[in-house]
Amino acid sequence: MSRVALISGTTGQDGSYLSEFLLDKGYTVHGIKRRSSSFNTERIDRVDVHPRDGEARLFLHYSDLSDPASLSALIRDIRPDEIYNLGAQSHVRVSFDIPAYTADVTGLGALRMLEAARAADVDCRFYQASSSEMFGSAPPPQREQTPFHPRSPYACAKVYAYWTAVNHRESWDMFCANGILFNHESPRRGENFVTRKITRAVARIEAGIQDKLYLGNLDAVRDWGYAPEYVEAMWLALQQDTPDDYVVATGEGHTVREFVEAAFDRVGLDWQRYVEIDPRYFRPAEVDALIGDYTRARRRLGWAPKTLFGDLVRIMVDADRQLLEDERMGRLVRVDR
Ligand code: NAP
Ligand code: F7E
């Protein structure tokens, strides 16, 4: 019998990579997709039938983290062995514009999933997608023991979800693990996060169809890793004998300015001719520097990052150049590029 996983946020960057990872391991994967007025399954359309045996083992269901009845019904029907709660309003800047919605989906959504699992009385393990944003203004390097100091409605919601998972572990003896993941990127990254915004702009500027790139704070330091590697850490966190919380990071910090410079360098352009600062992209409260210490993940999960900053920039710029080329040639465009 194949193991059964339920993923919220299946249609997002991490959800799509995690679905592929679990299918490769022989899991049956159930994903939550939410209703939207236009297609939102582009990232996982390519994996709806698993290539190994031609048999569909990825199933998508309409539900929503704001809708407890549908979550309960789904968990009761599917009876998953593992639940990965990746769904969220995940944009930090946007969370200042829609704070109550962010708290509801990103914070209370975790509680709804946990309570639905508890009410269904299924013997399952629960992964909560926690975030380095919870550390906020705590100075680097940040590790599991570092006190949280959230700096946005998004980060506050993630702190609530983190403690709710810990509380379910302590109160109800549920197997709940938090992955405290630092920024991780890929060609599937949403286009309004800074790395993808930059790599997409570099490809368009090189092709002559964009002339400027408007950005906010170039001094922020982030620890950027490669998303396909980070989903393995999620899975590993649920394969341990006892549940715990893990920082997942590269341990390297770089400024947004360094990312810009490296991305323009890749195509032989001088970034200073194209980048302008637009204060609209500044945040009411900024997180200045996030650099993770992943010692616990390395020791206990045997996990370590393989793709570091320079390779990540290259992968993303090259993917966006290829995507643009495919679009211009009218070729079938796949998210994986
Ligand atoms: P993402 O690409 O923004 O994906 C978010 C997913 O959540 C999407 O599938 C989205 O659906 C879904 N979602 C949004 N609102 C929902 C709702 N009301 N009900 C159900 N699903 C909903 O995020 P990601 O980068 O893959 O990140 C995955 C998780 O890890 C998120 O919880 C994020 O906060 C957290 N995280 C991310 C990072 C990072 O650097 N990427 C770091 C730490 C933690 P649509 O496709 O329909 O929008
Ligand atoms: O910003 C600066 C911005 O939006 C990174 C999410 O996945 O990782 C992500 O959150 C930095 C910030 O990611 C622009 O001010 C400058 O300092 O790419 P970002 P984030 O806020 O770090 C964490 C770990 C998560 O959990 C989140 O879900 O870049 N920045 N100029 C800009 N950022 C954006 N988006 N756009 C700009 O124009």
Number of strands: 13
How is the largest sheet built, in terms of strand order?
3-2-1-4-5-6-11
> Tally the helices: what do you get?
10
User: Strand share of the residues?
Assistant: 15-25%
Low-confidence stretches: none
Mean pLDDT: 95
What's the CATH C level of the largest domain? Answer: Alpha Beta
Q: What is the CA-CA span between the terminal residues? A: 33 Å
Helix content: 40-55%
CATH homologous superfamily of the largest domain? Answer: NAD(P)-binding Rossmann-like Domain
What is the CATH topology assignment of the largest domain? Rossmann fold
Instruction: Return Rg in Å.
Output: 20 Å
When the domains are counted, the total is 2
Structural class: alpha/beta
What is the chains' assembly state? single chain
Ligands and ions found: NADP nicotinamide-adenine-dinucleotide phosphate, ligand F7E
What is the approximate shape? globular
**From the 3D coordinates, which CATH architecture of the largest domain would you assign?**
3-Layer(aba) Sandwich
Order of helix and strand elements from N to C terminus: EHEEHEHHEHEEHEEEHEEHEHH
Largest beta-sheet details: 7 strands, parallel
